[in-house]
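Team,

Forwarding the record for the chain on the shared tracking sheet. I've put the sequence and predicted structure together so nobody has to dig through attachments.
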Amino acid sequence: MATDRDTVLEAAVGVLSRRPTAHLDEIARAAGISRATLHRLFPGRDALIREVGLLGLHRFATALDTAGVDQGDAEGALRRLADAAVPDAMLCAFLAGENQLYAHDDINDLWEVQIARLHALFLRGQQQGVFRIELSAAWLSEAFFDLVAGVGWSIQEGRLAPRDAAFSLTELFLGGALRRPDAGTPAPPIHRTSDHGPDTDTP
C-alpha cells in the first residue's frame, strides 16, 4: 500500500512539536514506517521540516477559504475561521514555533499571503465597529494565530478537549478583541516604524 505523505507529515509534526531535535528514526516510528521509507519520501531533515511547513500553510489557507473570511460580518467570519482552523491547530503550532522555516523564500511568501488575509479580516472588523481600534489589526492577527497554535499544544498535552477547542478559542480571543459599546474615545493609534515599513493599520 502506498504511503500517504500527509499522514507522515502529520505524524512528524506531532513528534517535532514536542521534541524539535527528535531523530528521524523516532519520526518514522510515529508514522509507522521504516527510516528508509521516510528517507525515500523526504531526502533529509530539512526537506521534511519544509514539507511540514508547506502543509501547515496550505491547510491554513484552506481554513481561510472555508470560513469565507473576506465576506460578511467580521465576528461571524472569525468564528467560522476558528471552527475551520482548530482541526489543524497543531500544524499552526509548528508554523509558530519553527523559525528555520522562514529562511525559505517560498514559505515566507506563503506566510505573508495568509497573514495578510487575516490582517484584512481584522481591519474590516474595525471598520465595521466590531473590533477594538486601539489594538492594531496586525497585532490582532498575530495574537489570533498564536492562540490557535496554543490550542494545538493544549490539545496535544491533554489540557483542552478537542470538542471544546473552537469555543474556548473564540470566547477567550473575542473577550479581549471585541469593541466595547461603552468605551470612550481611545487614544490615537501609535504609528511605528519597523523592518517592514510604517504601521498603516489605522481603520
